[in-house]
Amino acid sequence: MNVLLSVEGLEKSFKDKKVLHGISFEVHSGEIMAILGPNGAGKSTTIRSIMGILMPDEGSVIFHNHKGKGIPRNKIGYLPEERGLYKDVRVMDILLYLAELKDYPLDKAKQRAMEYLKKLDLEGKEHVKMEELSKGMAQKVQFISSIIHEPELLILDEPFSGLDPVSQEVLKTEIRNLAKSGTAILLSSHQMNLVEEMCDRVFMIQRGHKVIYGTLEDVKKQYANFKCTIHGKNDISLLEKIPEVVRVEQTDDTSILYLTKDVEAPKWLKTLPDEIVINELTLDRVSLHEIFIDIATDKNLLKDSERQSLEEVGGTNA
Ligand SMILES: Nc1ncnc2c1ncn2[C@@H]1O[C@H](COP(=O)(O)OP(=O)(O)OP(=O)(O)O)[C@@H](O)[C@H]1O
Fold it and tell me: What protein family is recorded (predicted)?
């Protein structure tokens, strides 16, 4: 495990409003790490602090063990949330211009540009003006511009938004390949299914505070308890009395039973009372999407003790 980036104790206020409270995490070479959180949680402020666009009030950004020097521009790639930055320029010209800004050799840049244009289904578009491309095509070019110079750290802000399912798959493959070849990737996304599919570790922030930090496996193991969905008309009071049931949600004839953390699923199934009506039953783990909603809406399905232990393992368990 090679720690490429350490963010330590970031604090930031805008006027008298504090938006980051002691934000700390690491990104390792070769991993895809997700930064998650509801709107306004502080993700962009964190990313801007890493990029050196914003100065945090406290804390540091350490790259390759070097503190306070900022990250050299040729070592970092950034796909910002804002899209469509370049209009009246041709695809290849903008890619080569950006590579040159990062001191990357032009012949290699041209070769990489052609390679990625082909991979992302943009072959033959190198002389087209950016404004003539569709939104999705322009976004793919912007992605290429963020990796043209082979950065060690790649920050992707909502890379999949606006892409069709086929393009999403292609981009997923390329992002995974970059991680496999050693790039450290920090990915911000609201699409929890994609995060679940792609990321090794997650950092979740809410109102400027860290709420979850750990490997996806830890998060799942420690937080994504089992839930049992029963289709059939049942009295909620009967379901609530079943051992190991923490909470029941009911809509029409469907009941979702959230179970305690250490439940042994096969044994638990045998404890179901005979009088329960079961037309259909599924038992699965709570998804990252549900974990996110639980935290973002302050439902606190996750007990404080569990959250505490997750935060403790976050930095060390990858
Ligand atoms: N330049 C600024 N001046 C004042 N307040 C700001 C500024 N930038 C961000 N904020 C505030 O800081 C908080 C965190 O914002 P930030 O953009 O980091 O959230 P985010 O997690 O990226 O949200 P989103 O998912 O909506 O992009 C918000 O309350 C926002 O209003």
Answer: Belongs to the ABC transporter superfamily.
> Which amino acid is it at 148?
I
Domains of the chain: 3-220 (3.40.50.300), 225-285 (3.30.70.260)
Rg (the chain; Cα; Å): 23
Q: What is the pLDDT of residues 185-239, one digit of tens each?
A: 999 998 888 998 999 999 999 999 998 899 988 887 777 678 899 999 999 999 9
CB-ligand 1 contact for 41 (6 Å cutoff): yes
Distance of alpha carbon 198 from alpha carbon 33, whole angstroms: 9
Query: Is the full-model pTM beyond 0.90?
Result: no
* Ligand 1 binding pocket includes 28 (Cβ within 6 Å): no
**Dist. CA 139–CA 186, nearest whole Å:** 18
Determine the atom of ligand 1 nearest the C-alpha atom of 45.
18
Whether residue 53 has its Cβ less than 6 Å from ligand 1: no
Main-chain phi, psi angles of 113, to 5 degrees = -60, -45
Q: Which atom of ligand 1 is nearest to the CA of 81?
A: 27
Closest atom of ligand 1 relative to the 12 alpha carbon: 12
Residue 45 Cα to ligand 1 middle (Å): 6
ipTM of the complex: 0.97
Nearest CA to ligand 1 atom 27: 39
Quote the CA–CA distance of 215 and 224 in Å, as a whole number. Answer: 13
The SS3 call for residue 248 is: strand
C-alpha 43 – ligand 1 centre gap (Å): 8
